[in-house]
């Protein structure tokens, strides 16, 4: 049945407006080429959309040729203003744009955990009103909100989920009350991140994929055949509740502790990094978990002395501290320095190899004494997955008095100290040579005394960086082991073909972490799956909220141009 004239006009108008949104200003001739419509039909729709206040002349094309110039038509950007909110447990971020998505103003405000519900809601609403004013907007047409938790598919409301602040749920109603003319909607943060990655990020060429959200918490979003899937209750992708091996217990209906969250949440990642002696300072606004992952990636990717120093907490110049002081050693980067001055002797190289765990069957293998942590999956490490060494007895070895008591405390040992046998414990320490304040991170299972002795033989600085790089690599391996468990579980059920490691942590891990996870999943599953790092990181939530707000506003405004 052919479309009625009014339906045909509406379809043509929407097509032209979508092209103007995607391509930017166009001439009537170019619209004719892209739409396939006749010249009179294009002339009619241009006149109709101009009269409706949706498009206007924004310039001219063909200034270099003779004759009259063609008019360029563009969407009237200030016809409507939009706002997007990224609501986190620790604060909220807001951005205001025009109808075509051009950002006009943006701001964030932290909201502490001890802030009451009422004050927290007021802080968030006040921030929105301030950003709207800074953007020069009189009112908002549409507001899109991204928040953690379950969204009721029947009502579109944020459900009452234990563990999340009450002000999250109150915020939607408060915004609707203070902005009565605006259309306010809320969506799960991970779902919005997936939409953003699909349209502007790592999944632009994929109709089917899964986003694994790695930030303060964990989550997953499922996109099948180009459509976001939410599940019957709106909870599809609550991977934090997935029961996994390697945790102290099982999750409950009200608490994801004991599930995948316990392996891959921000606190768990920071704790894992600490076990390998990997720490970082000065991470700025990003989560600490993202900071340690970014630092570890920089170290193993050839970041050299600066990256090693950042990980060991001593700053850029502290990396590769030599036995006699703090001078940087030439070639103090992983794999480099073969011809560098101060390169270690053959004896020093052998000792360094022993320290780095390249030849030991226990290298990188966690003991059961650490709460049943998942063991390494990589074949390079040798031994059975997660099997504790019999020499360890499943217990942490006793700390010698020479270590100075607590793991991680600097120990002062003379330059003539003799290397003690490598201890197969989970202890990590920072070693200070001859009382120097410059320290290097010691990989798991390495005696501080051994490090001092080998550093004396090898020239100190080069070895120091190598120790840090080795610890960083084994931390990334252990993290990849954990993430692979969650990814493989998703792959076994959905077979998405592609998994994006999202959030701040996924972006920080980059190709280095994604490749490690993909290799493990390939060994665990017959279903070939590409693992990619996020291109948008933590910004994906705000971007996804903006895209959904823009789509909703344009659907409404473009649907009835006659008004």
Automatic annotation (TrEMBL):
Signal peptide: none
Domain of life: Bacteria
Gene3D superfamilies: 3.30.420.40, Winged helix-like DNA-binding domain superfamily/Winged helix DNA-binding domain
TM region(s), chain numbering: none
Pfam families from the UniProt entry: MarR_2, ROK
Region entry Disordered, spans: 312-413
Biased composition regions of type Gly residues, renumbered to the chain: 312-340
Biased composition (Basic and acidic residues): 378-405
Name of the protein in question: ROK family protein
InterPro entries associated with the record: ArsR-like_HTH, ATPase_NBD, HTH_MarR-typ, ROK, WH-like_DNA-bd_sf, WH_DNA-bd_sf
Residue ranges of domain HTH marR-type in the record: 16-65
Family to which this protein belongs: Belongs to the ROK (NagC/XylR) family.
């Amino acid at each position: 049945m052919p479309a009625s004239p009014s339906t045909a006009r509406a379809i043509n108008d929407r097509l032209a407006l979508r092209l103007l949104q995607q391509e930017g200003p166009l001439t009537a001739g170019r619209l004719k080429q892209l739409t396939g419509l006749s010249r009179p039909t294009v002339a009619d729709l241009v006149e109709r959309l101009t009269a409706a206040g949706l498009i206007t002349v924004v310039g001219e094309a063909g200034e270099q040729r003779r004759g009259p110039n063609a008019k360029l038509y563009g969407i009237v950007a200030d016809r409507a203003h939009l706002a997007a909110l990224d609501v986190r447990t620790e604060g909220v971020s807001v951005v205001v744009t025009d109808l075509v998505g051009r950002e006009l103003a943006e701001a964030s405000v932290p909201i502490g955990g001890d802030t009451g519900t009422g004050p927290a809601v007021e802080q968030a609403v006040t921030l929105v009103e301030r950003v709207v004013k800074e953007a020069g907007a009189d009112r908002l047409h549409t507001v899109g909100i991204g928040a953690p938790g379950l969204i009721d598919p029947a009502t579109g409301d944020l459900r009452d989920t234990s563990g999340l602040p009450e002000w999250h749920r109150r915020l939607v109603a408060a915004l609707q009350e203070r902005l009565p003319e605006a259309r306010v909607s809320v969506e799960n943060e991970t779902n919005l991140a997936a939409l953003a990655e699909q349209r502007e990020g790592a999944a632009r060429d994929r109709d089917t994929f899964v986003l694994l959200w790695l930030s303060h918490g964990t989550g997953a979003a499922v996109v099948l055949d180009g459509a976001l899937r939410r599940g019957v209750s709106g909870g599809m992708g609550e991977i934090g509740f997935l029961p996994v091996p390697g945790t102290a217990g099982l999750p409950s209906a009200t608490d994801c502790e004991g599930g995948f969250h316990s392996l891959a949440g921000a606190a768990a990642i920071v704790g894992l990094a600490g076990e390998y002696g990997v720490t970082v300072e000065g991470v700025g606004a990003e989560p600490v978990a993202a900071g340690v992952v970014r630092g570890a990636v920089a170290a193993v990717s050839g970041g050299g002395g600066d990256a090693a120093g950042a990980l060991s907490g001593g700053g850029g110049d502290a990396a590769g501290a030599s036995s006699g002081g703090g001078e940087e050693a030439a070639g103090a980067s992983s794999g480099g320095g073969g011809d560098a001055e101060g390169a270690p002797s053959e004896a020093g190289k052998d000792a360094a190899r022993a320290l780095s765990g390249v030849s030991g069957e226990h290298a990188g293998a966690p003991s059961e004494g650490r709460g049943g942590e998942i063991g390494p999956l990589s074949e390079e490490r040798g031994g059975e997955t997660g099997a504790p060494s019999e020499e360890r007895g499943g217990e942490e070895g006793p700390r010698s008095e020479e270590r100075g008591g607590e793991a991680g405390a600097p120990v002062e040992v003379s330059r003539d100290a003799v290397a003690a046998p490598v201890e197969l414990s989970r202890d990590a320490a920072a070693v200070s040579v001859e009382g120097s304040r410059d320290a290097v991170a010691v990989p798991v299972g390495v005696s501080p005394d051994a490090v001092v002795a080998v550093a004396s033989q090898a020239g100190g600085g080069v070895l120091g960086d190598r120790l840090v790089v080795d610890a960083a690599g084994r931390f990334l391996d252990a993290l990849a082991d954990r993430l692979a468990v969650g990814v493989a579980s998703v792959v076994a059920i959905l077979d998405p073909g592609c998994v994006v490691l999202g959030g701040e942590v996924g972006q920080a891990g980059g190709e280095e972490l994604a490749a490690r996870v993909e290799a493990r999943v390939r060994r665990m599953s017959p279903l070939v799956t590409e693992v990619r790092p996020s291109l948008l990181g933590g910004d994906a939530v705000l971007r996804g909220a903006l895209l959904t707000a823009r789509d909703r506003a344009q659907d409404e405004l473009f649907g009835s141009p006659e008004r």
